[in-house]
Amino acid sequence: MTALAASPMTDTNLEVDKLTYEIFSILETKFLFGYDNPAKLFNNSPAPPVKSPHHRRAGAAGKVRVLSIDGGGSTDGILAGVSLSHLEARLRLKSGDPDARVADFFDVAAGSGAGGILASLLFTRGKKDGRPIMTADEALQFLIKNRRKLMTSCGSGGILRRIFRPAASSERVFRRAFGEATLKDTLKAVLIPCYDLATRAPFVFSRADAVETDGYDFAMREVCAATVADPTVAGAAEMRSVDRRTRIVAVDGGVAMNNPTAAAITHVLNNKQEFPFCDGVEDLLVVSLGNGESASVAARRADPTMSPASAFLKIAGDGASDMVDQAVSMAFGETMQSNYVRIQASGFMMNNMNGRDNVEMAEEMLKQRNVESVLFRGKKIVEKTNFDKLEIFAGELVKEQERRKSSILPVVVLKQASPRTSSATHSTISSC
């Protein structure tokens, strides 16, 4: 398995570069230059006559709410976990519902690596009451408790610890959390990437695909194992779909897309069946959670046995995440302040800390004022802290939730899976 994981790295880079280029090309062409006709993006077909700007007021049906969570970064997902815990607390306070969950206020969740684990824990339906299997605080505690079993970047022990980390141990952790739940059991649209060594191409686990056919439905425990599998050691995760027809040999989602925000946005804009009235970024509310810089140089000094390949992948993931944030910020343009928020921090390493110290450090990171992309003006340091931005956006999410209670038009028409004995599907209007 080691040779299998290491051999296609050159092809991997080419495939990831191609995927990144295609996503950015669509974002740039569609938003920066005003091309809102899909035909114009991919061929030279004549564009239809320009409609009156009043043909449909932007956001008339409401805004689609997107949550995107980066791969582990220097905090192994702890920064995003603390951000989500704080966000959920503010949503409960502002909505007046003491049992409100993050999943109640988002329509789409995308997560890579540790972010994919968090998204899965917060958006998978529990058997008993149909609510998410964990609260944001419980998901954070799950990540803290199991970091050393799930993340190869944390702790000491070098290459020996990474090689001898038993796969069965992480499999048991995920099985206890998710049981037999599959992608069909997620509450909202979910997107979790990995890189498939079998096809040498990125692969995105998607609820929308899973409800169409069992060939794209996978156990959630295996989805999580796939998105955190270490590509530099014997850590590739081999799995099959529930109907056994689709085979995946997966490695870390950060190889394909460490920051899945752009992929989540394009998924919404090109999925008219589930999001019929979403025509552009003005119809979106997007929360993108970073997990700190990878700090690969410092990590390698602390752990001299870290391979150059591991360090390179972390650095590449950082660069790709920043590029996605830059592209998305430019795409939102003047609506960025109201429709898009990016939470990110720098300057901290958490590898050898206990859970309480990790949380305290993440809270310090949320007090930072960070740089923000400005259309055609580079970047600037913003006045608001990460905490401030989460507080403001929590209010916007609650406003959208309240607005939907009196709306006639559905914002989301979520695909619903038929019983697993049948491959047929149907659509129903989401209550959210």
Automatic annotation (TrEMBL):
Tree of life domain: Eukaryota
Record key words, sorted: Hydrolase, Lipid degradation, Lipid metabolism
EC number: 3.1.1.-
Chain location of the short sequence motif DGA/G per the record: 252-254
Keyword Hydrolase: yes
Stored Pfam families: Patatin (PF01734)
Family: Belongs to the patatin family.
Domain comment in the entry: The nitrogen atoms of the two glycine residues in the GGXR motif define the oxyanion hole, and stabilize the oxyanion that forms during the nucleophilic attack by the catalytic serine during substrate cleavage.
Protein name: Patatin
